[in-house]
Structures are given as C-alpha cells and as structure tokens.
Specification:
Number of domains: 1
Strand order of the largest sheet: 2-1-3
Largest sheet: 3 strands, antiparallel
Shape: flat
Structural class: alpha+beta
Distance between the termini: 16 Å
Radius of gyration: 14 Å
Number of strands: 3
Order of helices and strands: EEHEHH
Number of helices: 3
C-alpha cells in the first residue's frame, strides 16, 4: 500500500456511460489541479462529461469507493483487487 496519497483524474462520459480516461499524477497535486482545470474548461459546465479529481492511496481503492465510474465487475473481483493492492490477499 502506498504511504502517501496519490492523485487521479477520472473523465467520465455520461452519454456513453463509460470512463473515457484515468490519469494518474502520483503525489503531484499541482499537476493534477492544473489538468483538472484544463479538462473543466475544455468540456464546459453543461457537458455530458464529468471530471473528477480524487486523492487516494491507490487506484484499487478508488475502484471500490467510486465503483459507479468503472466497468461492472463482480463484487468479489473488485474486493480481490483491492486486497491485493493492500497486500492483504489470501492468494
């Protein structure tokens, strides 16, 4: 598990009901905020695109806590990936 918070930008397309892009910034908060502002400006307030900036210990955590943005997977598979990322799996 990462000790420091990692920054992730999710770009979700509501017309297609799918995640267009996941951009990882690591610990670089300034780069994440700059890109977030660029994407908001690019897509505008009335767009069908949702721009979400999240800080978390890992992408696996975000896939659990914000599962609605990711392709549907069986809950057991989501939790397995999360536990593996935390190094708590029983595999």
């Amino acid at each position: 598990m990462a000790d420091k918070m990692q920054n992730f930008l999710l770009i979700y397309n509501h017309d297609r009901l799918e995640l267009d892009e996941v951009i990882e910034f690591g610990e670089d908060v300034e780069a994440a905020l700059d890109r977030y502002a660029e994407e908001e400006q690019k897509h505008g307030l009335h767009s069908k695109m949702e721009i979400v900036l999240i800080a978390s210990d890992s992408l696996a955590s975000i896939q659990v806590t914000h599962a609605n943005y990711f392709p549907r997977q069986p809950p057991s598979e989501i939790m397995r990936k999360y536990l593996v990322d935390l190094d708590l799996s029983t595999d």
